[in-house]
Amino acid sequence: MKELLDRVALITGAGRGIGRAASLALAREGAQLILAGRDTAALKETSDLIRELGVGPDPLICQLDLLDNESINAAVKQSLAAFGRIDILVNNSGIAGKADPLWELSEADWDECIDTNLKGPFLLSKAIIPSMISRKSGSIIFIGSVTGKRPLLNRSVYAASKLGMVGMMRTLALELGRLGVRVNLISPGYVAGPRLDSVMANVAKHDQTSSEAVAAKWLEIAPTGQFVSAEDVAQGVLFFASDRSSGTTGEDLNISGGLVMY
């Protein structure tokens, strides 16, 4: 029996990376999917991969911009009209932000990262939560980062956005616990892929070194000696989305290869 048969999941940033891996993992367990994000071409690629699995109906593709509240509300309205409910919300979309010391960041740099990584998930959760409360059921999953707990050079605004997400998640878990809605967060470590490559390139440029040197330095401090994969993180999403985590809320799960253990 598939664990998420007929449940409806909305995943932001579903076009690539963790979002794509999570979408495929949820689809394999029978979830009906809403793939949300700005890049509809990438979302269609994910939809095509899900269709190839032959596990259920085609996903709904929703164009959604976390910097635009009207876009958020329109996507939620479209989703509820199509499925009648949203059982699982995966707040995955985010940006890396500028890899510069705080005193070299512009106000616009700061606002873009905070608005995308923290305000956007707030607005999306706000739009979906009332429908979950009405059914006394739901699972909200935030994708944070170990950078929110372990300082990383030149990542102040990103760290602030992700640590702020932890506080929002725990407060929501407290507020929604008796209303049947669970709220949890995953803190990935360094996830192999294009985004990490871009971050390392920016750090290397600032430090006047190579991306390979940055990667080697970061891997030195990870007990496993390797980066985690998007699929590793997707397994955490599947756990929080399913009844296997029915007794868990307010949890911050590290999937970091031991980079962070608290």
Word description of this protein:
With 262 residues, this protein is of the alpha/beta class. It folds into 2 domains: 8-191 and 229-252, NAD(P)-binding Rossmann-like Domain (Rossmann fold), CATH 3.40.50; 192-227, no CATH class. Helices cover 48% and strands 14% of the residues. It has 8 helices and 7 strands; from the N terminus they run βαβαβαβαβαβαααβ. The protein has helices at 17-28, 40-53, 69-83, 107-135, 156-176, 194-207, 211-220, 230-241, and strands at 8-12, 32-37, 60-63, 88-91, 138-143, 181-188, 252-255. Strands 3-2-1-4-5-6-7 form a 7-stranded parallel sheet, sandwiched between helices. Helix 1 packs across helix 8 (230-241), helix 4 (107-135) runs parallel beside helix 5 (156-176) and helix 6 packs across helix 7 (211-220). The protein starts with 7 loop residues before the first strand and ends in a 7-residue tail after the last strand.
